[in-house]
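Question: does this match?
>
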Amino acid sequence: MKKIEVITMNVRDTLQAEELGVDRVELVSAMKEGGLAPSYGTIKNVLAHAKIPVQIMVRPHSYGFVYDQNDWNTIKEDILVINSLGSNRIVFGCITPTGAIDESLLLKVIELVPDLDITFHRAFDSVSSQIEAYKILSKYKKNVKRVLTSGGRPTALEGSNMLKKLVTLSQEINGPEILVGAGVTPENIADLDAQIHANEYHIGSGVRVDGDFSQPIDKSKIQFLKNLW
C-alpha cells in the first residue's frame, strides 16, 4: 500500500490532513526558506492533538546543509525538545563540504536519542553521488527510515531516472524507503509512479488550494490521491 505524506505548518493543517486520511505529515515552518524547524509551541500543540505520524523538521537555517559546532548546538537542543514532548520523529539531513553524508554529525544525532525515526531530507539532493550516499545511509537504517529526494534534480519528474535507480537499490539492499518529493502533484503522480514504482510520496503545495501554502489543504486533491491506489 502506497503512503502519502504532506507538509503541514500548524495544528489546523495537521488535523485537516489527518481527517482526510493522509498517512503521515512533515511539520515545518518557513516554507519560503525551504522549510525550517517549527516553534516549540507549534510542536507541542500538534503533538498534543495529532494521531497520525508527525515528522518534525530539524533544520536551523536555510543556507545549506553543512553544519558547524554552533549549528550542532541548536540542532541538539531542538531534538531534545522534540523528545521531551514525546516524539522521536525528525526530518534531518547533513552533508560535508565535499558533498558526502556527514556521518560524524549523523552519529551524534543518533547517539543523542537512540530510538530516533529519521527522514533524511533533501540535503540528499546536494550530495556528489546519490548512489554512494544512499549506501552510507543504509548503514543507519535502524534510525534513517526514509530518504526524501527528487533524484538530485529540481523536481522529481526531472530526477525520475535516478529515483528509479534509488528505488531499485533500496529493494536490493533492504535500505531506507525512498520518499519521492519536489513538484509532486495529484496531476503527475500516476505518471511518476509508473516510471519509478516508489512506495511513498511527499507532497507540499501540490495538495493546497490554488497550490498556495497560505491556503488550506484541498480535500478533493487528497481524495483523488487516495482513489489512485
